[in-house]
Amino acid sequence: MDYTQSYGGVVMCSYKTANLYSRRWFTVLILICLTACGKNSVETQKSPSGDTLKSIIQQRLTPKRTQQLAQLGAELEQLNTPLFQQHPMQADALLSAADQPRFDRSVARLIKQDKSNAQAYIEMAAKLFPQRQYKLTEALLTDDSLNQTDIEEAALSAGLDPARIFVATAAGTEPRITPLIHSLSLTLFEQQATTQTHLTYRVSGSTEWLDALPLFWDAAQHTLSGSIVYLQADTQYELQLTLTLANGSHEEQQFTAQTRADSPPIDEDKIYYLKDIYVDGTLDIEALGIKGSPTGWAKIVGDPNTIIRAWEEDDAAINIGDNSYILFENIQVRGGRYHAIYAYQAHHLWFSGCDVSDFGRTPHYQIDGKAYEYSDDAEPIDQDSGFYLNRSGVIVIENCNIHSPVPAANPQDSGDVRGPSAILIAANHPQPEFEGQIILRNNRFWGDDQHRFKHLIESRSGGRSWGGFIRDSAIYNNDFAYANDSLVELDGGQSNVLVYNNRFEQGFTGITATPNRAGPSYVFHNYVSRLGDQFQHSWAAISLGGYTVAPQGLNNVFENLIVSPSNGLAWQTYKGDASFWVNAVNNIIITTQDDSMTGFCLWDKAQITDSRYLNNYTFNLDLAASKDQASIHQPFIAPELLNYEQAESYSLQDGLVATSAINYMPLANFSRVEANGSILLIGAED
Q1: Pairing of strands 297-301, 326-329
Q2: Which of the 8 DSSP states describes residue 80?
Q3: Cα–Cα–Cα angle for 409, 488, 663, rounded to 5 degrees
Q4: Contact between 636 and 682 (Cβ < 8 Å)
Q5: Which of 194, 281, 175, 184 is nearest to 522 (CA)?
Q6: Non-local CB neighbours of 104 within 8 Å, separated by 6+ positions
Q7: What's the pLDDT tens digit per position in 47-90?
């Protein structure tokens, strides 16, 4: 039955119908290949010489298999070159891996099993399968367990374009202003650490200038950078910056910037109703050709009766590819073998009011406490996700419900935590103007005791400066619950990444920034409480580390309310390094238990000289006293409040604390003060 039809200029067909023939062909092809491989099992167990490699492989090739390789762009004549003659078994293994559902994972598995030939695998794969070479290289580069230099050198040897391999960096010296919806950032390039700044702002046309925090030094990029928060949407602001140089001279700079609107502009001719364009299986936005423009976005509108349901073999329930300028509204998504929603090199996407669940691979085996899809898989199920924003940026996810993955993450006592994430972030779009700029607001991210996530928000390539969010992103007014690792992982590039007004509970750790490769990041006005993995074990509300081995971003931690059974703000090792750079001001941190590894409100093992701890209320209820291991630069201003009754009162406020005790040190633009100016509000807003 043919479901093909046209709607609004978009050709729509059932994914199932369109792929039925190709899937049957592929199944027959695999059977033919398996039969052929079986007939030649003796040869495959021996190590063929370079001279005989081509003939052995060609003996395996049915006409259809040869056609498939030709369609992939394979150049069989390359088997006669020295590279392939020197590595015949590796070439043979690559050709066998070509039929696997995830070619990149198959290649990664081969490399891990034979690390001495890593570069040969990568270079040969790129030459045999040129249509896959860039996606393969990108996938391998995001695997932190592989040697990044091997991948880069092999890709260059294979003739790949360096501009597409290496992440672009900001060029020139012009200041960069990046507006989000309720904030904006300012970054000055080629600066000196000794330069001091004073920043003020106002709504254009207003007569009142308001103070902002100064810009912060980022040694990784040699920039001065900072954010202004709690701004109005779609509003023009004027900024005035004074720089005081090391020689005492002054420089004045002025800027204007417009915050983004609360919703994108829609092209009325590109509004699609899901019930009219979807039948079943994957909703393939690339195949449908749905995309908008900067002045007129496309919009896809869902309804309660139309649910996107991926089939078991579909890698994703929605495939966006690199199509851009699209708003998804009220879409319900179920399934996706790896990811519910997948975007690759896309930008300007907006998801509003969507419900996403039941994604990820089905675990059929448990090995050493970890879930596997198949018993012979080299790796456990990991990084399946509700959203995979792969090399994609300038994205808003708001008012969504992301929950109930199919697999469950293993607990900490089974070793490194592996499992699904609600959102997997890799914001390194190949065009620098589209990197980062991820907004996650007003969402609910949750699992349950039987199906906990690894992370709710996970950063890909978290050890690299281009990993994770990278820059200019905001996570606010969200609920996060049920992870066996950290609830939110910021690891990687964090230049002006804002995390505020969120609630965190039921995770081994609340927020990690281990390491922070490029700052400053800001974690403020959050409420972290009731931590614990599935066995109610936990480490810290906020954990930081890796400053020495992966320098060197600043973590600003302001005015959070933390009630932790374990630790408050504490170290975490990255490649054995527990050092971090933090500016912790005006936090209320209550811990409830005490032993040699828990109960620390502030636990800074390395205590680098640039870190600052100012006016933090810290108290351990079990000890009935403060418990800190950090270099405190300014103790809490009202020591008379450091008592059990006051600490218990703070711990029971459930997210909102009013106190006048820290009003003496308000943080310009960040601190929220009541109308009478006397009481500072701390914690996540209701």
Answers
A1: parallel
A2: G
A3: 145
A4: no
A5: 184
A6: 135, 136, 139, 140
A7: 444 445 555 555 544 554 455 444 444 445 666 677 877 887 88
Residues sharing a CB contact under 8 Å with residue 503, sequence separation 6 or more, in sequence order? 478, 479, 480, 526, 527, 528, 529, 655, 684
Picking from 441, 336, 445, the residue whose alpha carbon sits closest to that of residue 395 is 441
**pLDDT value of position 605:** 95
CA distances in angstroms from 578 to 544, 566, 584, 627, 671, listed in the order given: 8, 17, 17, 19, 30
Q: How many CB atoms lie within 10 A of CB 201?
A: 21
The conformation of residue 306, written as its DSSP 8-state character, comes to B
- Tally the C-alpha atoms within 13 A of residue 208's C-alpha that lie toward its C-beta: 1
CA distances in angstroms from 670 to 506, 513, 586, listed in the order given: 27, 20, 11
d(Cα 667, Cα 267) in Å, to the nearest integer?
42
Q: How far apart are CA 563 and CA 652, in angstroms?
A: 9
Please, which residues have CB within 8 angstroms of residue 423's CB and are 6 or more apart in sequence? Answer: 385, 386, 387, 389, 397, 402, 440, 445, 456, 457, 458
CA gap 580, 606 in Å, rounded? 7
Strand, helix or coil for residue 173: coil
Residue 401, CA atoms < 13 Å, CB-side half-sphere = 10
DSSP class per residue in 446-466 = E--SSS-BSEEEEETTTTSTT
- Predicted TM-score (pTM) above 0.70: yes
Distance separating the N- and C-terminal Cα atoms of the chain: 52
CB < 8 Å & 24+ apart, contacts of 210-214: 210/668, 210/669, 211/668, 211/669, 212/668, 212/669, 213/667, 213/668, 213/669, 213/670
Element (H, E) at 286: helix 285-288
On the 0-12 / 13-18 / 19+ scale of CB atoms within 10 A, 89 is middle
Q: How many CB atoms lie within 10 A of CB 361?
A: 22
pLDDT per residue as tens digits for the range 140-158:
887 777 887 788 878 877 7
Question: Closest Cα partner for 532 from 585, 602, 592?
Answer: 592
- Residue 238 CB-density burial (10 A; 0-12 exposed, 13-18 middle, 19+ buried): middle
How many residues belong to the chain?
Answer: 686
Looking at 46-195, list the stretches that DSSP marks H as alpha helix, in order from N- to C-terminal side. 50-60, 63-72, 82-86, 88-97, 103-113, 118-128, 133-141, 148-157, 162-165
Residue 627 CB-density burial (10 A; 0-12 exposed, 13-18 middle, 19+ buried): buried
The residues of the chain scoring below 70 in pLDDT are: 1-80, 98-102, 131, 162-173, 658, 660-664, 674-686
**Burial class, 675, CB count within 10 angstroms (exposed 0-12 / middle 13-18 / buried 19+):** exposed
Helix axes 50-60 and 88-97, enclosed angle (nearest 10): 20
Crossing angle (nearest 10°) for helices 118-128 and 103-113: 150
The residues near 248 (Cβ < 8 Å, ≥ 6 apart) are none
Cα 177 to the center of its chain, rounded Å? 22
Which residue, chain included where needed, has tokens 């899901």? 274
Closest CA to 594 of 628, 560, 569, 562: 628
DSSP-derived secondary structure letter, 386: E
Alpha-carbon distance 569 to 617, whole Å? Answer: 12
